[in-house]
Amino acid sequence: MNKKIELIGAPVLFGQRKFGVDFGPDAIRYAGVVERLQRIGHEVLDSGNISVPKVSVEKLQAETSGLRNYEEIFSYNKTLMEKVSESITQGHFPVVLGGDHSLAIGSVSGVSAHYDQLGVIWYDAHGDLNIPEESPSGNVHGMSLRILAGEGDEQLAQLGGMSPKVSPDRIVLIGMRDLDYGERQYIKKHGIKTYTMADIDALGIKTVIQETIVYLKERTDGIHLSLDVDALDPNETPGTGTKVSGGLTYRESHFALELLQQSGLITSLDVVEVNPLLDNGNHTAEQAVALLGSFFGETLL
């Protein structure tokens, strides 16, 4: 990888209802991400955090109908879209540090402007494929991928003036173990390539990633990896807001990222849902940094 890595912090929390995930980008920095990537031999530019609206307890936790915190979510995703697009224009490799997973609306929108056939790997316990009518919570971090596929709120789907940002046949879901009924129906209807934890247990992570690479290589001209730390088992990453037992192990995830790095196909990346207020000694942020190390070519020898 010969591009400069650009770290873009997105301290956003409006896509869900728990405080602390907005501290995720700085927790990852505190865990030494810049120094780690530099030791591998990369040039790293830390662009700091994008500007986001202020939050109040009442606003974040208020009972409401429809999309929660809609104006704030639209605002920061537009800002993030522009920042990510600018990063790619400058020849950088954008790494977005989150922040809740609603930020992927902005990051992938920024990336998609530079590719005709963008692919997305969604490494997560959840599909994030809800629409407002079917969402049990109204939390947008559970709708972001469906919006990027062109469904759900029209204004968010049209962010940047085009929709969809990614078609269902260029999406791969890895680590799935908590899907709502509407999400399952959507996956089946569109034939989205999906690896549940049962699939990973049966096939092994090496085969899953190899199949993913073969599947996307022939149909994409760039691939965005969106990595939610809750894809890993909560014993591995306790500092996250939507824990689901039975997830990927530390070693499985490192090996997966090593294989993706070796493919040379990944063109941009999110690391999301690190919440230091729910963590134990910043362990989850440290795990995120270690995963980034593996993705960017860190080896033992």
From TrEMBL:
InterPro entries: Arginase, Ureohydrolase, Ureohydrolase_dom_sf, Ureohydrolase_Mn_BS
Gene3D superfamilies, sorted: Ureohydrolase domain
Cofactor: Mn(2+)
Positions that bind Mn(2+) 2: D124, H126
MF annotations from Gene Ontology: arginase activity; manganese ion binding
Coiled coil: none
Catalyses which reaction(s): L-arginine + H2O = urea + L-ornithine
Cofactor note: Binds 2 manganese ions per subunit.
Enzyme class at the top of the EC tree: hydrolase
Gene Ontology process terms (BP): arginine metabolic process; urea cycle
Pathway: Nitrogen metabolism; urea cycle; L-ornithine and urea from L-arginine: step 1/1
Residues that bind Mn(2+) 1: H101, D128, D228, D230
Top-rank taxon, per record: Bacteria
UniProt keyword list: Arginine metabolism, Hydrolase, Manganese, Metal-binding
One GO CC term on file: cytoplasm
Documented EC number(s): 3.5.3.1
Family matches, as PANTHER family: ARGINASE
Membership in a protein family: Belongs to the arginase family.
Name of protein: Arginase
Organism: Staphylococcus muscae
Gene giving rise to this polypeptide: rocF
